[in-house]
Amino acid sequence: MITEIALDFAQEVAAHAPELYQPIGVVEPIHTLDAFDETTLAQYCRDGYVAIEDAFTAEEIQEAKDGLNDLVMGKREGFTGIQFESQARELLPSLGLENRLDAVRKFWKFVEYEPRLDAMARNPRLLRVLELILGETPVMFQDMALIKPPKIGVEKPWHQDQAYFDYPLGTRIVGVWIALDAATVENGCMRLLPGLHREGPKLHFKRRDWQICDAEMMGLHPLAAPLRPGGLLLFDGLLPHGTPTNSSPHRRRAVQFHYRNESAQKTSSEDRLAIFGSEGKDVSC
């Protein structure tokens, strides 16, 4: 059964400065999840990330893409977690459901509706690596798919993921970013700043998004993390990262999951904002 999807549009925002995401190099990945060992773990702790090339097979990636297609086509009754790009507002009336994927900004809270994406989050090879990093049984607490449609895919400004989550500092949080299409420098692959997770939390501001101030990030020389389909990026919840706009003709789809250590206890939003800043804690951006 195909049902009509409720339309939720992202807020329209101004363009970012091109030099904000200009990389000085690219990350060096390992080849497979099975290759993640104690040496790789030490690299992760030092740099705040590890890239892995062939984490998922072509068949597993196709299953995930088919799952997203079914979600956007309304084949999962009750699912409403889709947000469209603001620039697609005028395009949608002319698009059939099959073509709407090139207007989507993100999906969220889909694992309970789409078993193929749930299987990706529970992949045993991935869970082994996460348990090494977390030192405990990993618990997945957020699921999203991040889409940069051709020409209109907007940026995700520089931020730390832990600024969004109501868990106290010291909670071990790992982001897992899985490429479904080729993620390239041109179509908006991840930019990150190795080692800056060890500096702790940074103030975030409500500007184009909930973000670190552009002035703080300008000129910091990030690395880009291009990935083939099936590659993934593991990164610490305090690692500053962001993605630029996609002005290329190529779609960039990615699935992202966040995991915490099993013993983690939640804190309040007020406690979190006291650390990461509610409009910058009396400073300006």
Arithmetic mean of pLDDT? 90
Approximately how much helix is present in the residues? Answer: 10-25%
Gross morphology is globular
- Number of helical regions: 6
Low-confidence sequence ranges: none
Number of domains: 1
What's the CATH topology name? Jelly Rolls
CATH C-level class is Mainly Beta
Would you write up a description of this structure?
The protein has six helices and 14 strands. The protein is an alpha+beta fold and 285 residues long. The chain has a single domain (37-276), classed as Jelly Rolls (Sandwich), CATH 2.60.120.620. A seven-stranded antiparallel beta sheet has the order 2-12-7-14-5-4-3. A five-stranded mixed beta sheet has the order 1-11-8-13-6, with no helix packed on it. Strands 9-10 form a two-stranded antiparallel sheet. A hairpin with a 3-residue loop joins strand 9 and strand 10 (210-212). Helix 2 (58-72) packs across helix 3 (115-121). The longest helix is centred in the N-terminal third of the chain and has 15 residues, at 58-72. The protein is globular and about 45 Å long. The N and C termini lie far apart (49 Å). The model has no long low-confidence stretch (mean pLDDT 90).
Tag the structure with descriptive keywords.
285 residues; alpha+beta; Jelly Rolls; 7-stranded antiparallel beta sheet; 6 helices; globular
Q: How does the SSE layout of this entry go?
A:
Elements: E1 25-26, H1 38-47, E2 49-52, H2 58-72, E3 82-84, E4 104-108, H3 115-121, H4 124-134, E5 138-148, E6 156-159, E7 173-179, E8 190-192, E9 204-206, E10 210-212, H5 214-217, E11 223-225, E12 232-236, E13 241-243, E14 252-261, H6 269-276
Helix pairs in contact: 2-3
